[in-house]
Amino acid sequence: xxxxxxxxxxxxxxxxxxxxSFDVQDGEILGFLGPNGAGKSTTMNIITGYISYTEGSVxxxxxxxxxxxxEVKKRIGYLPEIPPLYLDMTVSEYLKxxxxxxKVETDSSEKHMQDIINLVGINDxxxxxxxxxxxxxxxxxxxxxxxxxxxxxxxxxxxxxxLDPKQIIEIRNVIKELGKxxxxxxxxxxxxxxxxxxxxxxxxxxxKLIAEDTPLNLAHKLGDxxxxxxxxxxxxxxxxxxxxxxxxxxEVIRISSDGDIHEFEFDTxxxxxxxxxxxxxxxENEIPILEQRETEVSLEDIFLxxxxxxxxxxxx
Length: 316
Hints:
It is built from eleven helices and 14 strands. It has helices at residues 40-47, 69-74, 91-101, 109-120, 135-147, 165-178, 191-197, 215-220, 236-245, 272-284, 299-314; strands at 2-11, 14-24, 29-33, 55-60, 63-64, 76-79, 153-157, 183-187, 200-205, 208-213, 226-233, 249-258, 261-268, 289-295.
């Protein structure tokens, strides 16, 4: 449904995007991750036709965005991070305006707009002026505008900004439901949101695509590293020094202390033989291991590791 090929965007001597390429399949929800200034919003603005690019190409449902801009925009619903709302309009007036602006062809404009209003949960404010709504409700109105015309592709830039926890869950569920029928690109700084909603993840940093896969496969790509938690009894400083003395242990963090009971979290690439040596080292120093467990590698861990590695490579 979406094909981005060798996309490059330059502002004078500054390169915002460099040879970015990826595909999004019909009915797929793609998570788009990256730190501030990475190039996420630039990529989304290009895909929607809001800004042009320097090199490369973008196609939506087979239509090139430069050669067939009208056909492309018919197929896209876009929610920017700050929705472009008319604050002096009521919600219903705004949606009618968007409906007419998009030249939507449906049997009933009233039914079409009411279905969208019900979907995003703004029926109780549809006759109120947008300027009098909370930020969360304004975000919902922006999403309703993006859905007007029933586009095949949705581009959502930080769609849950300003929402309370209950609203975030509700919008996530809406996005999941929409993903059954539409192709969605979702940008978010809430990494748990990406994990909960998206089929696949792209990570972009410094204008370059540095990772592309499912969250699970990205975790596997971290190699043989595992995140472990040890609960020990005794000297915290000695326990920490023992952990740091082993070559297969890194990123040692003391996460809690209660009297002489301490918990440490660390990454390890140790095999079973090395783990035995670590166990005996604790025993020799009379520091019993009360508990040990392996924790799941989170998308946060993947994101931080990959962006850190990319920064280190760029400094070589």
